[in-house]
Design a protein that fits this description.
The protein has four helices and 14 strands. It has two domains: 86 residues, Sandwich (Immunoglobulin-like); 151 residues, C8orf32 fold. The protein has 263 residues and is an alpha+beta fold.
């Protein structure tokens, strides 16, 4: 998996790029390369995500990232028996993922959440009911939202892109006191219909039930194989693909993710 960015700027711009896989258990890095003339170095942010700091030179630049991974458990894990944890018993590190954040607003959509899902059996099936609703309520539409669109905005508009699907599902979960965090990364086309649009980074979310974090995907709403996590956070603001400290124009962009046949 990997990606290519073509960039243009008129003067030197510091930037942060987040495209390298999260060093999760069950993910083995076989190879990894950066191809660019820009100076760069890596660091790990407060959520444990790998980030790369760049100095983008004036003119045109290209950043190419490639990696080859071995995933020990490539398929999404389904656990219908997973139960919700009472708030008083939640681990301290999960509490931040019940709170409102910039794009996820359980305080604003709490009434809708409890009306729609409050009477359902707590646990996996309730989270899946949230996913089913969001998947049906929002229509995927390229360009339907902007970098300032919140979950409440998407809910009212009835459309969005994958980050809006994730934000809305996270918001409903948090309103029901279920910790939920935003996830983005690569999803190859393995055992699924081919995409109608060019491959891009994907957004999904994880809910804390059954004593661990579980993957849910309101955009696709089907189990997928080969997800590669790049970043996790409260919402998309914590895991921006590119953060530039000045005007930076993206003139070309490509994302790649595919299964390598066994040798």
């Amino acid at each position: 998996m990997g990606c290519t960015f073509d960039l243009e700027t008129t003067f030197p711009i510091p930037a942060i790029v987040q495209v390298a896989p999260d060093p999760s258990p069950g993910v083995r890095m076989d190879s990894e390369t950066w191809e660019t003339d820009c100076g760069h170095h890596g660091y790990v942010d407060l959520y444990g995500n790998r980030c790369e700091r760049f100095e983008i030179a004036p003119g045109t630049s290209r950043i190419v990232y490639e990696a080859r991974l071995l995933l020990s458990e490539p398929a999404d894990v389904i656990d219908h028996a997973a139960e919700e944890t009472p708030v008083a018993e939640l681990p301290d590190e999960t509490i931040a993922f019940v709170m409102p954040s910039r794009f996820c607003l359980p305080d604003e959509l709490g009434h809708e959440a409890w009306q729609r899902f409050g009477g359902l059996q707590p646990g996996w099936e309730r989270v899946q009911a949230i996913v089913d609703f969001v998947h049906g309520h929002l229509e995927w539409e390229s360009g339907a939202s902007n970098p300032w669109t919140t979950a409440a905005d998407a809910y009212r508009a009835g459309q969005g892109v994958c980050r809006d699907f994730a934000h809305l599902a996270i918001t409903f979960c948090r309103a029901l006191n279920i910790p939920a965090r935003y996830v983005f990364g690569y999803i190859p086309e393995i055992d699924c219909p081919p995409l109608l649009e060019p491959m891009d980074f994907a957004a999904w979310f994880e809910a804390y039930i059954g004593g661990r974090w579980h993957t849910f995907d309101a955009r696709n709403n089907i189990p997928r194989t080969g997800r590669v996590v790049v970043g996790r956070g409260r919402d998309a603001v914590d895991v921006a693909l590119i953060t530039s400290f000045g005007p930076l124009t993206l003139t070309g962009f490509e994302v790649r993710a595919q299964e390598v046949p066994a040798q």
